[in-house]
């Protein structure tokens, strides 16, 4: 990766703009409105010029809809409970119909247990970070060992679901286009592409279309997930295509309601003793401007207010980080090491290995773990409130789980708990009054949760931003119990 990437690419999973000097950042970023970002995309000429996903003999589903899928034959080490031959592991590209030339890359891992397990799709955030981060470091079927072998993940979510990971928006991970017109700038574009993907996926895999379907993900996916859930629900209502059996959506350490979540930064930082009261008072003075700009952004068609909101609100986070120093803002128990605070180099090495690339059918496409261009292109989307579409989903009985690892700063549990409580729907009062109960796995309390009807909030102990990485067993239990409506069945009260 050329070094200018790290200048532009300011954070990994969620909205922030960390810099050592908030004011310098402000003045330099003001020169980067979206038109500038688009110009950069063209200048950097990042899009591959040739197509690579030609149908081959081992394509198992080369349909006229433009889905190219390969059965994976990678070597896995350890006891999977299945032979490699029996594993339904696939990777593929899908040509997105409402684009000039975009191809969406995805993994599909059939359940290790039962074909009629729910279908779960996972979306990593960024915006612009590849879902392969989750495949190999969070909840995928396997992990990458130090010697670059794949070893089974005993807590892969494919133990209880048929699991899909997509690289999106276009330009992320292995997904690509030859046209910059296909770069997405808002949740409408993102959710339409995801809906199109899902339709063709179920066309190619009709045996899975009747299964329960869940949307999950993390971080900036706190934007994608509600938008995608609403899009699927609307498609079902309008009978636009294959009926999708959407049962619920889960957001892990997400950014969903910026007005509430940006207010929570200073409160959380004070609670966690990251800043003192006088720092708090100083930083908080910025919030009213941030709030006003977010309100305007909600009504704004030109994008000016959204850009202003981005600049002002992220300065709150920057000021906190200036005091906090080199702590990892995804996990306050750790230090931030390297550009992205974690070391994901094993994944990059693995995915650039020639044999792996051949197995995946990705040709010469560069793997971009986090795309600064995609990030930039979504800049005006960042301060949009994605909570607004959720109440109507809840009223129609579609479940929402909001969970958060307690040591994450950037999409902290406090801000998430607040927006979930503030959300206006028919169950709001009852949810507010619901008891906080213990979330226990193997006799150990792994978090505290509360629930009313379709809505559940879960704060996960001993975890940062990436809950399935930090608490793999608890995360798998969470998913399974939530899908089976058993998450809050134990009724013992926990002290707050
Ligand atoms: C997978 O690849 C190995 C060699 O890399 C080969 O021996 C084996 O037969 C392949 N399995 C399948 C199911 O294609
Ligand atoms: C690679 O590492 C894994 C896990 O530590 C181990 O099981 C495997 O034997 C190693 N493979 C080689 C070829 O050393
Ligand atoms: C609060 O912390 C700042 C550093 O962030 C320090 O300069 C200041 O003296 C502290 N104030 C008090 C009252 O402790």
Automatic annotation (TrEMBL):
Signal peptide start-end: 1-17
EC numbers: 3.4.16.-
Superkingdom in the source lineage: Eukaryota
InterPro entries the record matches: AB_hydrolase_fold (IPR029058), Peptidase_S10 (IPR001563), Ser_caboxypep_his_AS (IPR033124), Ser_caboxypep_ser_AS (IPR018202)
This protein's name: Carboxypeptidase
Annotated family: Belongs to the peptidase S10 family.
Keywords, comma-separated and alphabetical: Carboxypeptidase, Glycoprotein, Hydrolase, Protease, Secreted, Signal
Record's subcellular location: Secreted
Coiled-coil residue windows: none
Enzyme class: hydrolase
